[in-house]
Amino acid sequence: xxxxxxxREVSVTIDGNTFAxxxxxxVVEAAKHLGTQIPVYCYHPKLEPxxxxxxxxxxxxxxxxLQIACATRVADGMVVHTSSAKVAEARRGVxxxxxxxxxxxxxxxxxxxxxxxxxxxxxxxxxxSRLTEPKLHKPKLVDLGPTIVLDxxxxxxxxxxxxxxxxxxxxxxxxxxxxxxxxxxxxxxxxAYASYFSGNTTEICPVGALTSKAYRFRSRPWDLNHTDxxxxxCSVGCNYRVDTxxxxxxRTFTRENPAVDDGWICDRGRYTFNYLYAPERLRAPSIxxxxxxxxxxxxxxxxxxxxxxxxxxxxxxxxxxGGGRLSDEEAYAxxxxxxxxxxxxxxxxxxxxxxxxxxxxxxxxxxxIDDASVILAFGAVTPELAPIxxxxxxxAVARGHAKFVYMGPYRxxxxxxxxxxxxQRGTLPKELDDLGDAVRRGxxxxxxxxxxxxxxxxxxxxxxxxxxxxxxxxxxxxIERLVxxxxxxxxxxxxxxxxxxxxxxxxxxxxxxxNLGPGYAPVSGEPGMTTDQMLAAAADGRLDAxxxxxxxxxxxxxxxxxxxxxxKRVPFLAVADQVMTETASYAHIVFAAAxxxxxxxxxxxxxxxxxxFAAAVESPLEVRTDxxxxxxxxxxxxxxxxxxxxxxxxxxxNAAESAPRAxxxxxxxxxxxVTGASAPIAVxxxxxxxxxxxxxxxxxxxxxxxxxxxxxxxxPYAVFSPSDARRLSLDEGARVKLSGAxxxxxxxxxxxxxxxxxxxxxxxxxxxxxxxxxxxxxxGGWANVExxxxxxxxxG
Amino acid sequence: MTPQRERRGxxxxxxxxxxxxxxxxxxxxxQAEDGYVTDQAIADAAELVxxxxxxxxxxxxxxxxxxxxxxxxxxxxVCRTLGCMLGGADELREHIRTRLGVENLETTADGAITxxxxxxxxxxxxxxxxxxxxxxxxxxxxxxxxxxxETWRRESPAAALPAE
Lengths: 796, 164
Prior knowledge:
The structure holds 2 protein chains of 2 kinds. Chain A is α/β, with parallel strands linked by helices. Chain A has 5 domains: 9-98, Ubiquitin-like (UB roll) (Roll), CATH 3.10.20; 137-277, 2-Layer Sandwich (Alpha-Beta Plaits), CATH 3.30.70.20; 286-353 and 503-658, Rossmann fold; 366-497, Dimethylsulfoxide Reductase, domain 2, CATH 3.40.228.10; 688-795, Barwin-like endoglucanases, CATH 2.40.40.20. Chain A is 26% helix and 20% strand. In chain A, helix 13 links the parallel strand 21 (463-468) and strand 22 (492-497). In chain A, helix 2 (85-98) packs across helix 3 (116-124) and helix 11 crosses helix 12 (450-459). Chain A is globular, with a radius of gyration of 28 Å. Chain A starts with 8 loop residues before the first strand and ends with a helix. Chain B has 2 domains: 3-62, Arc Repressor Mutant, subunit A; 74-154, Glutaredoxin (3-Layer(aba) Sandwich). Chain B is built from 7 helices and 5 strands; from the N terminus they run ααααβααββββα. The radius of gyration of chain B is 17 Å and the shape is elongated. The relative contact order of chain B is 0.15.
């Protein structure tokens, strides 16, 4: 059905009220227009009707038997009764069946208090069971994977979880095994249900069968306080609720925003809050003293750091790195701190390979993916970097109207049908310009090449969404040229840039870049240094102080050796973070920063939606929000005053952004300056080209220390092509040493077909084996491989 | 997948408008070849019809005539539903279990005979009934079972369950 087709309305009468609904509406949905609740278990608005549980039986006139409201669509003139005596009797009967073997262990069940089986039994069920025989017993403690424990006895076999895994995640690992009363929710041969989306099944489970290991037996629903928040783990910005008890975060829970998350969150987002209570969490500032590190009060740390930064500022030899993990307000305060207080434009939020976060023109929305005909992804491994965005791609492709094209140096494991184009380093701009030419020339391409194939996909396309990793400026320009060509050809086209940090776009918009102030306004005077320039300057002894806030360049900056050299050499380094990161370990002064749950503010997601989050809990005594740290440092420098109240900062940010300024041409946003571009690198004979690969659970800092996500965290590994593995005589599981131009790491070896010969994929951002020790500042690098231990030896 | 299995798979897939429809026939074919549905057969079936191995497992576990563990050359399925129960199936089943030395869904120590208790076989008028390799046997008494057992023991069918 084409979306343009007008939707016909039909008239329906429910419980005596006659009204119009679009043709094809399900009776259960139509009843919602009246505020009438029809009880459901298997039905879920995001899933296809299944008609399994029968609790939604309603009486429809002229139909001889009761009908299920969840799978019956309204017809014109249909008359429905949802609370007749017949319906009540049927509901009682269904509930009696559902409760037949249910253990009724509500007093110890996590779901008790928010359980639909409890609620509907109270509303519609029989008060007592007539069953005198013993109940059927099933396994009560099934370890379903790293995140979920399943109680088969509580399960009512509504199959929401397996249908979620099938229809939404499309991974199809969760199944119903056996049949009839013996049916069990299961995985194949007891394998792990290790989906990135597994936590959602605990929410949609209408009973207490699927429970999350992180929350199991931790609280009762009625004891929880709810705070609306936004996940800051990636740049999608899914909305969620932080549930707390006794001032402690107990769990997070989806808070549907159709424009952003469509009601789902990924497990990284859901479970990354336990680090707040981990021993590695920083609870007080500390200073390097007498060869060790001692805790100090916040005031002492601020006074000391402020004076050191002021001294360096007076000599014009200071830099500020960070912003991508702060709130919008804090990012704004940070650039004010750099510019007004330290008197420098040396500020940059970019601590990863990402060089920009905001498309300067043609920004797309997340919802554009839903009706796109072609989705082009460039180096953005969305399943790992932005899982909830990836769900949209999966859905669009599964519905059959979207084609998915991925261009990158290797083929990531996408769950969907992918047209893959292998890119050599630095060749994307040319590929895209060729593609643009092909689009301009129109249909009837000489076939065969990748460009011709994609051009013919595009020829039939109405809407195209380009998804970029934000790495490499020439590629960014080429993507914009292509999108412009597509728009000129009468197509709808736009760009999404997946941020390396949660608030990359917010930091960019707030002015945490050397050449742009708030609202992308070009700075007065000379642009400052970029991150790589600051690190190079610090490594050469040309900077006297660095302030790194909410960033971990030692692990994330492409040239890890340079970052470490710089952090070690700089005469004064102050770092603000939540845990002792690799970067913080070099710092003379470390501030303990508040987490997302302990402060309020806004965060901007990858498409530019600015969303508010509220403080759910209080932070430990000597912990401060980044805004408070910036404010106190300002006072200590005696060079001005920056308030730390989010409301005031937000108003200032808004005013600064809406200030009139010279347009940069075509309504485009100015782009942050970059240095260097990814040209081909020279790889020595026998060495392999290093390609970093992202992983949802990789990362230093909070990600490395969160007990909630630790079970899912991979060991550092590198993936070789089968032929390279043979040449190097290494087996799957062997321990290997990778040595690059300026460092080496030890990892375990994996072998996969998708790796191009002559390359090695290295898991990125693992503190135990930092991939960036093998790379240069442009993100390129090579490694010689040495087998340390064979697979059997390494396993032993 | 063996070339032979691949060929047979392709033939089966060609029979239906959707590849997925060939799943159960293919599993039956594999079962006839291997004696039961092996893990390899699950993987082969997933590859053949383009679904995940987990989905194949779900389907295979649904059908009582697909076995996921090795079975004997003789499969004896005895009804345990009401009609046969009234006709003396309880005593019959007790007798068979003792005689074979197995419980429900077990195979005799020599690997020859698999015993299974099943729901109604739709022959209540001649209860109690059992199926031997899917052949009905009616009005079974313990004595009748013993003499049939002697006969079955002498036979050696190629497979307990047919390929199609």
